Amino acid sequence: MKDIRVGLLGLGTIGLGAARILLEQQELMSRRLGCRLVLVAAADRSLDRDFGLDLSSVRLSSDAQDVVTADDVDIVIELIGGYEPARTFVATAIEHGKHVVTANKALIAKHGDELFAQAESNGVVLAFEAAVGGGIPCLKALREGLAANQIESIYGILNGTCNYILTRMENEGAAFADVLRDAQALGYAEADPTFDVEGVDTAHKLSILAAMAFGSKIHFDEVFTEGISRITPDDIHSAHELGYRIKLLGVAKPHGEQVEMRVHPTLIPLSSQLAQVSDSYNAVQASGDFVEHTMYFGRGAGERPTASAVIADVMDIARVLPGGVAYLPPAMGFIAAERRDLATLPIIDAECEYYLRLMVQDDSGVLATITSILADHHISLEAVMQKERHATHSVPIILLTHTTTEGNFQAAIARIIALDCVQEDVLILRKEQTH
Ligand code: HSE
User: Fold this and answer.
1) What is the pLDDT along the chain (435 residues), one digit of tens a residue?
2) Ligand 1, pocket-test mutation among 80, 190, 248, most atoms within 8 A of CB
3) Which end of the chain lies in a sparser environment, N or C, as judged by fewer CB atoms within 10 Å?
4) Is the CB of residue 128 less than 8 Å from the CB of residue 208?
5) From the alpha carbon of 131, which atom of ligand 1 is closest?
């Protein structure tokens, strides 16, 4: 049985998970592959620690360069994370003729297109299943299983940390900051957790999904992005009373030559399948013109699930080595020459339904003034709810609207915020009729 030799960059949470699979599941994988995966080398900046794993058979180095240029490495796994130096190491590995597997969504979202081009011209593969949805093989499903469909929409709960936080805020009325600390301790959160809670991590993943679904280039910088840090347990409770649950949702839809991409806290119907996705679980709902609605669900973060997706990519490559990588499906689901540079739909043209939470003076005529402004902008209401008076003379009002454009809604909101009876703390959330 031939050996396929693997080098690993980064012995953090996911790196150790990948090493564990390579060391502990070798026999099972050989039976599936007909060849043997051997972890020959690994690099990490800090080697002077207990890895909780017997790495005595692995050549360890504190310099990633040793792994990406090593003659005895066929496939490099990059699990350093972040833009640099990960990008330089991946590019160097490709230059040296190595196939690369990464879980690095930031890297693929920002530099993926240039790295795919480099990989193609060097005759190697850059694989990234673990970058989206952790352990869920959702990219493989989109790229291969749904290949006969025009994709009509993508909805994703793509950040385990945010989903964990929102779930515990709902179940326990817990404070945002306390739950974030627990998510970090569980190994879900990014090195900089603002990437999680401000929606950046979800935007990385959504931009990859959208490009793969619609055959476009990756436009991460153009994703409209809002996070969950302003959501309170009261908002979660109010949404529930109205029949909705709040999720940090990634939404992508095609509009002819444009692609709509948005990430924001979103009210989704309590009865929808996506509303049942709790804790650190992720889910991707992809709808195609022939297949209709499909959903992929599982652990979106953490050592073992993410490592599972990383090693599945390694196995896909190993199966066709040596020399057969041209038979693998194109990385982004479309052949390189057919990937278009579709424009991103300007957010002001996006059509949404809205949840608006206002703190207003509890006086006669206030609600009538606000609703008359909405009527001026032809914005129709689905529901209006007034909550208990606060200690002073103010009272929270919640409005749910029917569909309007973002531009029209923002114009109405600017007029509402300017009213003397409306206080500054205004929260705008969006609503989607998910399945
Ligand atoms: N920080 C990410 C999350 C890790 O919470 O989902 C997986 O990409």
Assistant:
1) 899 999 999 999 999 999 999 999 999 999 999 999 999 999 999 999 999 999 999 999 999 999 999 999 999 999 999 999 999 999 999 999 999 999 999 999 999 999 999 999 999 999 999 999 999 999 999 999 999 999 999 999 999 999 999 999 999 998 888 898 888 888 888 888 999 999 999 999 999 999 999 999 999 999 999 999 999 999 999 999 999 999 999 999 999 999 999 999 999 999 999 999 999 999 999 999 999 999 999 999 889 999 999 999 999 999 999 988 999 999 999 999 999 999 999 999 999 999 999 999 988 999 999 999 999 999 999 999 987 776 677 899 999 999 999 999 999 999 999 999 998 789 999 999 998
2) 190
3) N
4) yes
5) 8
CA angle 16, 44, 25 (to 5 degrees): 25
Q: Superfamily for 138-299?
A: Dihydrodipicolinate Reductase; domain 2 (3.30.360.10)
Ligand 1 mean position to 267 CA, how many Å?
A: 21
Three-state DSSP state, 433:
coil
Taking the centre of ligand 1 as the mean of its atom positions, its distance from the CA of residue 253, in whole angstroms, is 23
Question: Closest Cα to residue 94, out of 339, 334, 331?
Answer: 331
Look up residue 144 and give its DSSP letter: I
Note if 140 is an active site residue: no
CB-based pocket (< 6 A), ligand 1: 134, 159-161, 188-190, 196, 201, 300-301
Cis peptide preceding 265, ω within 30 of 0: no
* Annotated domain spans of the chain: 3-135+303-331, 138-299, 348-431
Task: Compute the distance from residue 162 Cα to the ligand 1 centre, in Å.
Answer: 9
Dihedral (Cα; 87, 92, 95, 97), 10-degree rounding:
-100
- Tell which one of 186, 188, 310 to mutate to probe ligand 1, the residue whose CB is within 8 A of the most ligand atoms: 188
Which pTM was predicted? 0.96
CATH number of 348-431: 3.30.70.260
Q: Which of 98, 140, 205, 247 is catalytic?
A: 205
